[in-house]
């Protein structure tokens, strides 16, 4: 009986490791000012603006599924009314091993004198390449504007790898 129990446990161990890996995400990003950036004033009311821009980001710290986060490019659309900003976009992250994760996000921001003061958003993964293909990830970010027109982001969330 003792041998049978040991065999059952050994057989169960590989099955349990085949389950999807889950974990937490905590990353800090430093992003430059949007370049290119295109701005159009809406003519329906004062201080109503639409813009689209792209920003390049570098991970200051963070990893996902044990792989260091490296760089990313965000492309986003904004609707600003006065100092209030609503935005949505896509972010393509490149990890240290070359894998990529694609995300969508949306959020709100507060502007001051035409520059970002603070922002918050929610994000979720849409696809990935390489060892992270099939990943499901989601979370939130908070941001502060930087003097160079860029932003510093702190993001957190959870992920689950495909089986």
Describe the structure.
The structure is a single chain. The chain is mostly beta strands and 163 residues long. It has 1 helix and 10 strands, in the order αββββββββββ. An 8-stranded antiparallel β-barrel has the order 1-3-5-6-7-8-9-10. A hairpin with a 2-residue loop joins strand 5 and strand 6. It is elongated. The two termini are 33 Å apart.
Strand element count:
10
Q: Give the low-pLDDT segments.
A: 1-19
SSE run? HEEEEEEEEEE
Sheet/helix structural class:
mainly beta
| Mean pLDDT reading | 89
Helix content class: under 10%
Using the CA coordinates, give the radius of gyration: 20 Å
> Describe the biggest sheet?
8 strands, antiparallel, barrel
Question: What spatial form do the alpha-carbon principal axes imply?
Answer: elongated
What proportion of the residues form beta strands (DSSP E)? over 45%
The number of helical runs is 1
What is the terminal separation in angstroms? 33 Å
Record the strand order, biggest sheet: 1-3-5-6-7-8-9-10
Which helices and strands occur, and which strands form pairs?
Blueprint: H1 2-17, E1 22-31, E2 37-41, E3 48-61, E4 63-64, E5 67-81, E6 84-95, E7 100-112, E8 115-128, E9 136-145, E10 151-160
A few lines on this structure:
With 163 residues, this protein is mainly beta. Helices cover 10% and strands 64% of the residues.
